From TrEMBL, chain A:
InterPro entries found in the cross-reference section: Spore_GerAB
Protein name (database record): Spore germination protein (Amino acid permease)
Organism: Pelagirhabdus alkalitolerans
Principal location listed in the UniProt entry: membrane
Family: Belongs to the amino acid-polyamine-organocation (APC) superfamily. Spore germination protein (SGP) (TC 2.A.3.9) family.
Residues spanning the membrane: 12-33, 39-61, 82-106, 118-135, 142-161, 181-202, 214-237, 270-291, 303-320, 332-351
Lineage: Bacteria, Bacillati, Bacillota, Bacilli, Bacillales
Compartment(s) of residence: Membrane
Coiled-coil region: none
From TrEMBL, chain B:
Full protein name: Uncharacterized protein
Domain of life: Bacteria
Length: 359, 76
């Protein structure tokens, strides 16, 4: 049975996938480049990202059959297989990075002393359960948790408001102008560029005419959240602290103090990240599962689900030693890989589609 | 202890999925599960024969090192 998504659910999945890793790392990455203009890097990234999101759906929309049939029709059987292998390699990289960064975060900030492996096992098995239940289940649960995520973000924005000092954002675009624009490159890599993988979900949408709108709504909403969070982080804890802390948004939560009643409610930040990254991991894991089914030509979709879960845990444990390596990875290997994959996917499918339409 | 947990997971996976699949699917499942189990056991003993991230790192290093060097100029 083919899983179906509504355009609304797709936009929520896009939102969660963009915000997944970004919400915690973006303020630090953006201020590393643009300093007090770090928020400008995020604004530029969001604008470029929205153009990319307009482009992605046109690669797959309005075709016949599933995602793999459509790619095969566009670029042939061998080309399709090569492209899916590339997407699998990238998706695997992305998932292990996400699993491990969440495990590290929980093990360092919340459950101190608990080995990250234990957390990696827990996250992966919950995601495994989610993907085995099907895409509809993930999509329905995203509708529930979206409200919770938005509420947490709104509470965070409201609670930090009394602590803000907009002097931290000054001078606006007087210094580090080039840096602010260059800073958009790594920001884009972990947000809008990597969601190219979501084109695999387009054939599952019941009304494909609304796919582009869904991508744009999800992307715009995630963009607004990222801008608000970055501005708030710089305005509350300052440029130096934002650059210094690995999880600067978590530090922002620790600053909250309202009428000596609400104090240190950084857990809110953790909630935002848990929910967004869970859906990101589950969606990518689902795409990995259906892609391996296509590559190995097995009948049942779930054949590789359990082995993939074990491989994800093992690879994340053995490949990523610590959070500093995560940052190193994000600004070199992951950045290059996500841009490479996006360019190859867009060019190979886009050009062949263009060629076909000319004939 | 860790090995026991892994074995328990593998047994659970077989019990849940083995009957569900047949023919080619079952063979593929068993092969994939065996390889994944072997890999995860070796990962816990820090003796993996293939480090995925390191491999990917080395594969795209000719491009990524240039990009990293260029970006470094704009980092504070």
């Amino acid at each position: 049975m083919k899983s179906k998504l509504s355009p609304h659910q797709l936009s929520l999945l896009v939102f969660m996938n963009i915000l997944g890793t970004a919400i915690v790392f973006i303020p630090t990455i953006a201020t590393t480049y643009g300093k007090e203009n770090g928020w400008v890097s995020v604004v530029v990234a969001v604008l470029v990202g929205l153009i990319l999101l307009m482009l992605y759906p046109s690669l797959i929309m309005n075709g016949k059959g599933n995602f793999f049939d459509r790619i095969e029709y566009q670029i042939g059987s061998i080309g399709a297989k090569a492209l899916i292998v590339l997407l699998v390699l990238f998706g695997f990289f992305m998932t292990i990075g996400n699993i491990w960064s969440l495990s590290q975060f929980i093990s360092v900030q919340i459950l101190m002393g608990t080995p990250p492996e234990v957390i990696a096992y827990t996250i992966t098995f919950v995601s495994l359960y989610a993907i085995r239940s099907g895409l509809e289940v993930i999509a329905r649960s995203v509708e529930v948790f979206f409200l919770f995520t938005m509420m947490s973000l709104l509470l965070l924005a409201i609670f930090v408001w009394p602590e803000t000092s907009f002097d931290h954002l000054l001078p606006i675009m007087q210094l580090n102008q080039t840096n602010a624009f260059v800073g958009a490159i790594p920001v884009l890599a972990i947000t809008y560029v990597e969601v190219v993988i979501l084109i695999a979900l387009i054939p599952h949408v019941n009304d494909e005419t609304k796919v582009r709108k869904s991508f744009l709504i999800g992307g715009a909403l995630a963009g607004i959240c990222m801008i608000v969070v970055t501005v708030a982080t710089i305005a509350v804890i300052g440029v130096e602290a934002t650059t210094h802390y690995t999880y600067s948004i978590y530090r922002l939560g620790q600053n909250i103090q309202i009428a000596e009643f609400f104090d240190r409610i950084e857990g809110i930040v953790a909630f935002i990240w848990f929910f967004t990254i869970f859906f990101k991991i589950s969606t990518t894991f689902y795409i990995l599962m259906i892609s391996t089914q296509y590559l190995f030509k097995v009948n049942h979709q779930k054949v590789f689900s359990a082995p993939l879960a074990l491989l994800l845990i093992a690879a994340s444990k053995s490949s990523l030693p610590n959070i500093f390596y995560d940052f190193e990875l994000m600004r070199s290997t992951y950045l290059t890989l996500s841009y490479l994959v996006m360019i190859i996917v867009v060019l190979s499918i886009g050009l062949s589609r263009l060629k076909r339409s000319n004939y | 202890m860790r090995i026991l947990i892994i074995i328990a997971i593998v047994i659970l996976a077989i019990r849940l999925d083995y009957k569900r699949f047949s023919g080619r699917d079952r063979k593929a499942f068993l092969i994939a599960l065996s390889l994944a189990t072997l890999y995860i056991i070796r990962a816990h003993n820090d003796t993996v024969w293939f480090n995925y991230v390191e491999w990917m790192d080395r594969l795209i290093d000719p491009i990524s090192s240039h990009i990293d060097r260029w970006l470094m100029r704009y980092r504070s």
